[in-house]
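User: quick one, fold this
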Amino acid sequence: MFLLFPFLGLSQIQFISDFKDRTKHDSSGHVLSLSEKGNIIAIGVPDNNGINQGNAHVRIYKQASGIWTQIGSDIRGKITEDVYGVSVSLSGDGNSVAVSFIGNDRNGKINGYISVYKNESEEWIQIGSDIKVNSVNQILNLSVNLSEKGDIIAIGLNQENGAEKNQSKVSVYKNRLGDWYQIGNDIVSQSKENKASNLPVSLAKNGNTIAIAFKASKVSVYENRSENWIQTRNNISIESIEETINEVCLSKDGSIIVIGVIAKENQKSYVSVYKNESGSWTQIGNAIKADSELYNSGYSVGISDDGNNIATGRYNLNNNKGDVSIYKNKSGNWIQIGVDIVNKSSQKFPGFGSSISLSGDGNSIAIGAISDNTNSPISGEVKIIDLTQMLLKEEQAQFNFNLYPNPAQNLFKIQLENNRVSENIRIYNNIGQLVLTSKETIINSSTLSTGLYVVEIETNLGKSSKKLIIE
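Assistant:
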């Protein structure tokens, strides 16, 4: 269930900066990674169209006194022929970065490799050797996830061939004495059917928990126990095999996960959040569903370190525009903060919201528009947005009120703070349906069934909500 708090206009959304790629046929913003405080960003630019062969690269920027400047030079692929894929992940402080590139060498062999760099005196110096991936098949995806300290890296490899010897897999490495050594064995897909096309993978910032969607309809979570990857008690399965898990994202300690799901035609896509409780995954609140089946809600997701804030990106909606929404966990319900962040570009198919990165503190978000052609044909751009004003307005709009008795049976009362006057009261059941409205602070609840409800009160000075139990 999600409720809308007092309307916050676009004036509270501060667009810090735009990064536009000035090379034709590149897609800046295809992959993004923000540091914990949101002051450093890594932007991956693949050559999706094969026109600028070998042009895939990563650029990293740092913000100081409101000005963004590039740190060091571009990090480019070492494969000299036809580099067509890139992934990027920053450490918590933004001083280390993991990058992956995919490409064909001059002999037509498909290669992929992963490198980790550290910022030393504003230059990116490689840490240890490359981690190489060779394949006789088409590599669909080669993703990287770096831990907070930058000393652990998870690598997701997805290949086109479904034969057992080439199944999708995830490998985790740790930096020991300056080089990279594998932790445990590869985590290998056990299924050849209904495989996730892009192999969503997320490594918790502590480096000890990893979430993987080998199948398009199921997420498995593993924990590092004595250098072995052990699966937690149950998988997280989505509602229908007709839906596809597009992205997963873990909180810092790995105890909370947000899952973005794309539905098939004529169905509503959605985002759901789960918490690990004694080894079992329990859903937090209800799924956040798109307003229309035309929306690709959940194409991209992000989560703050503490798991209390999430971001969802949607694209190809409202005449091929896109938007991003921010939600906060309030008493087990996902409450939207402010209004949707929308792209103002007049260009067609901008892909705004198809890639996002929420900073660890939840105060900044980077949004990619991978096909924004405002600057050049099939180029892209990234917007970085300061959310602090929007979050501050939301906090100021909240206020405390009392429900008594609680639990209640046939009657309960609402006690407001001084200077607040009740205007509207709405009561929602545990699946988000509006079941009762009132303008009075003494409410007859005899018609309500036993269970958990949310009381939302609108006053002359703002809105707030609180849980109510009916016995």
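User: anything notable?
Assistant: Residues 1-16, 22-29, 48-52 have pLDDT under 50 and may be disordered.
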